[in-house]
Amino acid sequence: MVDESVLSALREFVSERDWDQFHTPASLARSIVIESAELLECFQWSDQAAQDDVRDELADVLTYCLLLANKLGLDPDEIVLAKLESTKQKYPVDKAHGRSSKYDRLPD
Amino acid sequence: MVDESVLSALREFVSERDWDQFHTPASLARSIVIESAELLECFQWSDQAAQDDVRDELADVLTYCLLLANKLGLDPDEIVLAKLESTKQKYPVDKAHGRSSKYDRLPD
Amino acid sequence: MVDESVLSALREFVSERDWDQFHTPASLARSIVIESAELLECFQWSDQAAQDDVRDELADVLTYCLLLANKLGLDPDEIVLAKLESTKQKYPVDKAHGRSSKYDRLPD
Amino acid sequence: MVDESVLSALREFVSERDWDQFHTPASLARSIVIESAELLECFQWSDQAAQDDVRDELADVLTYCLLLANKLGLDPDEIVLAKLESTKQKYPVDKAHGRSSKYDRLPD
């Protein structure tokens, strides 16, 4: 379940500004990319970043993710848990333990 | 608050595979970008996309966002609500209503 | 000037497959992002990457950049040189020397 | 071949500012993503974009691509042409004509 107060705060914010007209799944997907690149920019030249900057940019990515989930009638927690199940199959513990390799490059 | 069962399921998944060693804020930020681009790929040639594909890719973006928030000791809901407050200042209703322009291009 | 043989090879490839109908500036911009994230994926968990993988993904990013420049009637070399001139203004040598800071965070 | 004057202009610009120390393949890959997302931002809410903005952002993406190619001792035109050859195999004209589907979803 998504926290009710977060979702209604977001919906009210969007509705007050009559912005829903701009929020298509495609434009929300573009927005998620754009914000995630601003998050990456915190680490452009270094692996250390100011926590405040990272927090602000991560908040923007999450915001658009929640808006997209809401637009598609999806529950963020549910889809994360569902995806986790299939990822467990792709990366069985005995093969994937301690390795960062992609699933098609795991040892037999 | 983040749903407790989602967070502990993710933590257990990562821990079982001894993957936390790979999860630095920088690598998690890269992962969020990579997954968001896979989400965008659903809309590469068209504004219509298969809902299943979008759901799966959105789940991946959210997963890495939750892992990054957890790594930094942040509560996703809290940071979204906090960011919303400052975004309200940048985009006052009277100026931003019905406009998709960036805050530095709003009318006076 | 862009090397004539590269541009005509790309044009022929696209034309043979009747793909120009899909190549709008917007879809080419999305494609550039998607391919650049695949390039980033070479470095997802490490700063070291297989040179072959990097070369292949960089080739894809460049390909879409050349297609977008061509679609807009722009010469890639010209626009890079033109942008370099304004970047020199933003980052004067005396202020920017040895610093990775963004232009709005340079010392006075 | 890459236009000699573009490459030496870029090298001189970087060298004057002592910026080569920041340019690793990993950081250049991140930079390419960051700039491509700024290009995408021109199309965030609409498929129409100001040509000047698109030109500026495309120039930034190309700049970092040239810097990365240079860093790895690669010729941009060569790698694009080489990649084109393998892409022709993946997307044979008879199967791919007029279709935007990915190679693993082409008809038999």
From TrEMBL, chains A, B, C, D:
<dbReference type="GO" id="GO:0009143">
    <property type="term" value="P:nucleoside triphosphate catabolic process"/>
</dbReference>
<keyword id="KW-0378">Hydrolase</keyword>
<dbReference type="InterPro" id="IPR052555">
    <property type="entry name" value="dCTP_Pyrophosphatase"/>
</dbReference>
<dbReference type="GO" id="GO:0047429">
    <property type="term" value="F:nucleoside triphosphate diphosphatase activity"/>
</dbReference>
<protein>
    <submittedName>
        <fullName>Nucleotide pyrophosphohydrolase</fullName>
    </submittedName>
</protein>
<dbReference type="Pfam" id="PF12643">
    <property type="entry name" value="MazG-like"/>
</dbReference>
<dbReference type="InterPro" id="IPR025984">
    <property type="entry name" value="DCTPP"/>
</dbReference>
